[in-house]
Amino acid sequence: MSFNGEIFNYIELREELLARGHRFATSSDTEVLVHLYEEHGDNFVERLNGQFAIALWDARARRLVLARDHVGIRPLFYARQGRQLAFASEIKALFAVPGQARAWHAGGLASVFSWWSALPPDTVFEGVKCLPPGHRMVVDDSGERIERWWSWPAPGDDDATADEDELADELHALIVDAVRLQLRSDVPVGAYLSGGLDSSIITTVIRRHTSAPLRSFSLTFADAEFDESAYQRELVGHLGTEHSSVSCSADDVASLFARTVWHAETPLVRAAPAPMMRLAQSVRGSGYKVVLTGEGADEVFAGYDLFKEAKVRRFIARQPDSPRRARLFERLYPYLASSPVGARSLSQRFFMQGLDQIDRPWFAHATRLATTRRTLEFFRADWREAMLAWDPHAALQQTLPAGIDGWPGLARDQAVEAASLMSGYLLSSQGDRMAMAASIEARFPFLDPRVIAFGARLPTRLKMRGLIEKLLLKKAFAHELPPVIAKRPKQPYRAPDSASFFRAGRPLPWVEELLEARSLEQAGLFDAGAVAKLVAKCAAGRAIGFGDNMALVGVLSTMLLHRQFVAARPGARPLERHWRLSARSGAQLRLPGEQRAAGGKDGAGLR
Known about the structure:
This protein is of the alpha/beta class. It has 3 domains: 147 residues, Glutamine Phosphoribosylpyrophosphate, subunit 1, domain 1 (4-Layer Sandwich); 300 residues, Rossmann fold (3-Layer(aba) Sandwich), CATH 3.40.50.620; 91 residues, no CATH class. 42% of the residues lie in helices and 14% in strands. The strands form 5 sheets. The protein has a 5-stranded antiparallel beta sheet, with helices on one face.
């Protein structure tokens, strides 16, 4: 058994197995997996409540079983060369295998610049695959097969008679138990506290419903548009927690970005993962190795503005010529300084894209897809043509649960968000990868499979009423939270993007070197002329929309990744290399030496 992750219900599973006559040599969750396989065969993964990437070799039967957790918190990559199959938690480990090609995969790149991540089984690298969340791969003498063992659950009946108070009590008890399980650790456990509803609930549960000591950690920004420190202080004062915060500036984002890309192993369309690495570093510096976070609540209980936007768009689609209905767009995105609803005529044209696809699963995501795919304009013609041939809708459909076309609109929106942005970006590039870069393990109580199943069966009216999000979740914890937190509208975590890479109207020296014509032409991916215009626009402070910001960050991160991985000399030891970005910058960026922490339960990596 090679195992990366945690099984939170291993104590209960161990007791069941002991009762059935199994004999244990250790008290570890890893040994429980071996006995569970002996008892249940390949279906052993269906008994697990945890976050994991597993490789099990059955020597007697000469068969290999690879498995990944329900929603893809832990990564699992593989690559083939002839009869050889290599697998690992990180792509850079596969590049250490002799003969492994280092080349871009057009479909994977097109996926990143559509859905913010490469949809499994693809990655952005040719010949490197990703086992999808909730899947297992079995390799034996009869061949190889990949099977789905878990799907995002179908919605229940929209029961208008469901008792709201009883459901709120049930949800409260369920989240308390999920937190209790995820506090199991042989080291102290802390919590991320953003100041939003979700992390506030997790922090409150730890403080009020467990005996675990509470240490909380926050991220702050000098820019008021991104900063939530006032709400963080409100909850800290309410709970009396031992708390620390770390500030992240544009300089910090720029200085951490190359290392962020190195650990993400994929192009990024936002710079937001870099501050999360800084937060994880502060946790590690405080002596903590495990943190609980509120990630996942928005997908399970319908918290995102995207869901509100889709509800408004569906309402308008019934009478698309109604000016009164179109005014509803103005209630969206109040926290954005450059909101897409700022100019009424432009916003209406933007949000009314894709109204002819109202019955398709990706309807809610049509606006995000259109904005993200604008970055394809900056690729060279040959790459752009290959990427435009990749069908983003067909690729997404393969990741979705069977029968989703018949689900209610909000349930479809939630499942698509979980399969795309949450799994491939939020839990990976912004979550697990940045935490593990500092040897920190992040845990997600809202993604306990029991909580996900509960959220799926909730009536729609208890998730979103009007444009009020996460209705039942707020009700379940309203009596334990300060009113300013309990009633606060959703404000998603964001960080400075393109502005981080410019000073006094010029790109930073290393940015300028990476994005100059010679560097772009050597990489062979981007149109140097188009990128030059984008850089000039950003340098002049005119990158005010999501499209420009995503394009700049996307081009920059892809160029970083090209140098770190694709153009790296085969046979080199990249974890020990130094990379000089620019002689003119007068500094070196050291490629990080950390790998996933080996040994113990805290992030033992697959090898």
